[in-house]
Amino acid sequence: MSLSPQIGAPPIGTAGWSYPHWNGVVYPKAYPPGFHPLEFLSQRFNTVEINSSFYQPLKPEITKLWMRKVEANPKFQFTAKLNQRFTHSRNLEESAIATFKEGLCPLLRGRRLGAVLMQFPWAFRFTRENQDFLIRLRRAFHDFPLVAEMRHSSWLAEDAIGTFLDYKIGFCNIDQPEYTSAMPPTAHLTSDIGYVRLHGRNPKNSLGAFDRQSPARQRQHDYLYSQAELEEWGKRIERINRYANSTFVIFNNDAAGKSVVNALQLQSMILGHPAAAPQELRRRFPMELEGFGPRHYEQQALFSAA
To answer: Contact 17/37 with Cβ under 8 angstroms?
Structure first.
């Protein structure tokens, strides 16, 4: 399957890039001089979601550094998660808002910021109070391209979708484990930005939770999408991308580098040719990444250029 050339392929990438468990799997075990994980990923993907902004505001000098690391890829755009103090604690102090905006401004001015994701917990259901708060949040960050991820299915109500449309808030279409009133897979577009987040379908964990009974605190994102599941989402993404100005597809199943595996697979399905996968990742996922070696990638690149 591939998207029509006039539509263009959506940027596909991972949620975050700074994971110690990716060393020796996605990245080299020992970084060579000058190596940077973000630069490494930008050679293979056209987007990545900044997840550290969810926990603390970014510093402008850091986002400027990140921009330099991806400058070799003119198509690359970041997305970033809004800080949890706004979405979860509902703290809309002007000073906090200003500090958060300051960190993202270099990306916005440099046209490297594709979207800002407001990630809400499952408990954030569609009520009049929560609807009003969403509107307040939209107005507080009116100068940024906002997308909202709702994990409770009540936000599929007609009035809820109407709020997204009226206030030009992008709808984040998600894939997640099944549980009570969980948001099902969708293909909604409520602004000019399409957004898809694939969390995995690990039934042992609920979104955002850890197994606190285990010393290892197993992450919920330990899931590898099958070819059939990726094709299923590929059809939804194509529908979204047909009408969006830009569409972002983010894999959040980072355990064992599986988000990178699935992002490479889906990207290959859409583009019609693979990117070069890291050697150790190919060794660990030989069936999924067959044909993703550097030699095959170079041959495809030469064929495309011709």
So the answer is: yes
